[in-house]
Design goal:
This protein is an alpha+beta fold. The protein is built from 9 helices and 12 strands. A hairpin with a 2-residue loop joins strand 10 and strand 11.
Length: about 325
């Protein structure tokens, strides 16, 4: 049975959802619902979906594998590509296989929102104000998200501050590895830039972010652009942002890539990464790729609201804010 603290968290969750819906409605956002069950999952190299067999019991459809979505991103961008689409938001259940820890649950709740004719700067402003409004409704004395404006810190400046490494001076994998090794940072055996970067980031940077106030970490190296456009005037970095508070990652967003050819190239590269890691390789979502080429310039972000609620309530484990955490059955 849930503990008294879990019941209190459930009431706080209801209040948080109400405050978020009030905020986004007031900003002109439309709340939408997209399917949890999809035909083509995302291709992020380190995220695995839950596979679900579809067994038709009527004349419609064929026996095949479907998947629980790891993010509503592809579906929401298909809506965003429709002419005249308003700003969109969604609070939905999201599923990622194998993710169980103090800060991970395989089934979790995501807030995802998109604003057309905007960029990641506008999205940061919207998220900052949304979380501040939600915390004032849930725990006004907590002061985690009401300390605005949130810090804006580039990835370059974060590594310089916390790891004493200048990414511009060490822009390739072997050079970055030498710099990290010289500072006593374990980097493993790979000399790939992204691999070395994440060793440095996880050991020296991540846990130091967002303690005095939340931190928007922005301008990731271009190799980590994911679904973000490269920064105009500085293509070495992408208009990608993550939000951190108390050393915990809460959100990941972009000035959205609207070049379908470039998006296809990146997804093919992710297929190869998955293949190299021995993970299942999925087909490209052609409807999503077609929509990317029709999208207006847009900004969007995905937020793990269970983690947000943890920080608002001072909880230390994600299980503390769930009535039925996966730790009950795994």
């Amino acid at each position: 049975m849930p503990s008294p603290a879990q019941w209190a968290a459930a009431r706080a969750r209801q209040t948080m959802y109400g405050a978020l819906r009030t905020f986004f409605g007031g900003e002109g956002y439309l709340e939408v619902e997209t399917p949890c069950l999809i035909a083509t999952p995302g291709l992020e190299p380190h995220i695995d979906p839950f596979e679900v067999p579809f067994i038709p019991q009527t004349e419609v459809g064929r026996r095949r594998s479907l998947f629980l979505h790891t993010s509503p991103e592809y579906a929401m961008k298909r809506l965003l590509a429709d002419p005249g689409c308003p700003p969109l938001f969604q609070l939905c259940k999201t599923f990622r296989n194998g993710e169980v820890s103090g800060h991970h649950n395989p089934e979790f709740t995501m807030l995802e929102f998109y604003r057309p004719h905007a960029d990641y700067a506008a999205i940061m402003s919207d998220l900052e104000r949304a979380l501040s409004a939600a915390e004032q409704a849930v725990a006004p004395s907590r002061g985690c998200f009401t300390k605005t404006p949130f810090e804006r810190l580039s990835v370059h400046d974060a590594l310089l501050r916390y790891a004493e490494i200048d990414l511009r001076a060490h822009a390739d994998g072997p050079s970055l590895k030498r710099a990290a090794d010289a500072r006593g940072i374990y980097t493993g055996t790979s000399t790939g830039f992204d691999d070395v970067f994440f060793h440095v980031f996880l050991e020296r940077v991540e846990r130091k972010l967002g303690h005095e106030r939340p931190t928007f970490l922005l301008e990731y190296p271009a190799s980590m652009a994911s679904l973000a456009k490269l920064k105009e005037g500085d293509p070495a970095v992408a208009e990608r942002v993550e939000l951190y508070a108390q050393g915990l990652e809460l959100a990941n967003g972009f000035s959205e890539l609207t070049d379908a050819v470039e998006q296809r190239k990146r997804l093919v590269e992710e297929q190869e990464l998955r293949r190299g890691l021995g993970r299942p390789v999925f087909e490209l979502d052609e409807r999503f790729l077609e929509a990317v080429g029709r999208m207006p310039p847009s900004g969007g972000i995905a937020v793990g609201v269970d983690r947000v609620l943890m920080l608002m309530l001072g909880a230390t484990q994600i299980a503390d804010v769930l009535l039925f955490p996966a730790t009950d059955f795994v």
